[in-house]
Amino acid sequence: MKALTFVVQGPYFTETDRNHIASEECFASLRKYYPDATVIFSRSDQVEMPKSILELIDHVVFPEDAGQVKTGYINGVAKFENVNRQILGVQTGLALVESEYCCKVRPDFKFTSNSLDHLLKLSGQRTPRLEGKITLLDIYARTEYFKFMGKSYVDYHLSDFILLGKTADMRLFWEGDLFESTNTQYPHYNNYRTIEQMLGRRFYKHFYPNIEIDAYRDVSFEVGAVSSKRIRDDFNFLSFKELGIEIPRRFKRSYRDRSYFINGNRFGRVVFYFHFMYKWLLKESGLRGAWNKLIGRG
What we know:
Elements: E1 4-10, H1 23-33, E2 38-43, H2 51-54, E3 59-61, E4 69-74, E5 77-81, H3 83-94, E6 101-105, E7 110-111, H4 115-119, E8 134-137, E9 142-147, E10 150-157, E11 162-166, H5 167-174, E12 182-186, H6 195-204, E13 218-219, H7 221-234, E14 235-238, H8 240-243, E15 245-246, H9 249-252, H10 266-285, H11 287-294
Parallel strand pairs: 1-2, 1-6, 2-3, 4-12, 8-14
Antiparallel strand pairs: 4-5, 6-11, 7-15, 8-11, 9-10, 10-13
Helix pairs in contact: 3-5
């Protein structure tokens, strides 16, 4: 039996731009660095794929379309998300996994090395809730958000881009019912709990039924501290370079806020704060607007 299976979930991207890396590069790099792995593509679209790419994939599945789900209202405007499509797509792919370890990944990530083979050992130590730790990309895995002259605390905010671990734990993370539509009112976008929080809270609700999935994004310091302890016990957080992957450019912009990721540092927060002040001063002084007009963006 092969030791590692990849569940690639999402649509097939035909081109590389700032938002995505072409899926052709994802599957070609998978086969280059993990030639013995099983590759499952759980698709959410019907885009025609080249035969040369289909030959790189062991199984292609088309889950039932779960559709968008209404996740509340932000300042009175209804918000809809694709999170149920993701959950059902991953569940469908995981149902075919026979190996001890597996990796869930987006179809617009490109692999640059076989680092994941060496990271499997990180899943060897049992945690309070899992057979072994799950390894995540650090982007959007956070316990705090930056605020001007301060910060806010968040709970169970886990990145869902790429997850590596024991198959039993991966199934536990993704199992369960789909989200139901909610009419929860969020006064401002900063109150709206994120998709990452929805998935994280959904997982930990298996163990702690009092967790409210639709609660506001920000939580008290005490709730944030309890969440931080639990997710640090159950997950590893690594950069895209440490994972041996290349990510779309739009996600790299998030690394300006990396100091507020769960594995950030205080020096980085000082740098980010001055960067924020610099951008704010440019905006307030009118210099940014003048520059944009000069180069034709205004």
